[in-house]
Amino acid sequence: MLTETNQKYQRKELELKSLLEITQAINENQPESTLTEIFKFTCLIHLNIRSLILYMQTEKGFEKKISHGVKAKVPPVISLDQIHETKSAEKLELHLDEGFSFEELETYLPVYHKDKMLAILFIKRKRLEEDLDLNFTQALTNILVVALENKRFARKQLQQEVLNREVAIASQVQQLLFPRNLPEEGYLQAKVTYVPHSMVGGDYYDLIRVADGLDFFCIADVSGKGIAAALLMSNFQASLRTLLRSGERSLTTIVNQLNFTLFDNTHGERFITFFLGMYDRNTQTLDYVNAGHNPPILCHEHAGEIELLHAGTTVLGAFEELPFMEAGKRKLGGDFTLHLYTDGLTEAMDESEEEFGEDRLKDFVSGHLCMDPKDFHESFLARFEKFREKEALRDDLTLFSLRFKNGHS
């Protein structure tokens, strides 16, 4: 009787020692590898355990975290659809792929946080004639799993904070790409409405005045979103401005060179839709190339007509050499307005999943031909918000309007 009592006390002493070792390591903020080694050592030395496998839930499923003394072939990951568990009934069913088995192990202990199973510990006793304190083993496993989950959460939170800082920097850099000031009076008036889907967007617009009476303007939309799209667009903008500073005035040459640079950088994996226009006030001539972008709307104010500008080529970056090219040209004597936009505008949806569409945009433009861009944007956004109501935008949105007044100096 005394021997049995001593054995119980000895077992409790070992359990307390085990608990102290693991909690002390947690309090000292030891790395994951140290915590898992202490847990494994504790189970094998202080507890009646010969073999064990610990699976912890990750985004992939239940991933093997610790394994010792198991000869059978066990899966590195148990997917969620292979597990059927009921906490109330303490029942766990595993449907493993052929060739995998847990038959070598004796029992399992699930680890829960509220109703969510975080881990599964499979174990086999060292001495079959001695009992295993399952409650203590489960509690010890719970302590380890919670500590590892906290570490994973803290690491993820730190990564998110770093990402947020990077995104904030990228957003600030991206703002520098856009024109700081757009002309509001004189022969050219311009206004932009730019709403990125997130802190950084894949839309780009620009107005570059290279000489007296010679203006370049463009709009672009890069495939994808986020920092990668913003970085690609910043490189694209730098290439465009370098070409214009070099004195290049041929739009087809500029577009071909931009396509080559983009393809060389991305190997055809990313593309950009792009519209580039050039207006020469001295000759009252508009030249343009549309590279797979939404056709801008040209408003002939005196004629009371609108026109879509399609002429150009396909998207940039998809082919090493553009398969075709057509430069557009218009002789424009009177006042005219151009509305450039990205598909985030026309593909915006209302609550019934109906797109705003090009027809609504054209109808609105047709009814508001001779307006200053600032007033046009104010009226259009009121109409657009009424359509969209509270439905969130699903892409970057840009509307870039330019009004050329040839009768004014």
UniProtKB/TrEMBL annotation:
UniProt keywords, alphabetically: Hydrolase
SUPFAM superfamilies: PP2C-like
Matching InterPro entries: Bact_Sigma-Reg, PPM-type-like_dom_sf, PPM-type_phosphatase-like_dom
Domain (PPM-type phosphatase) ranges: 184-404
Keyword Nucleus part of the UniProt annotation: no
The protein's name: PP2C family protein-serine/threonine phosphatase
Originating species: Algoriphagus marincola
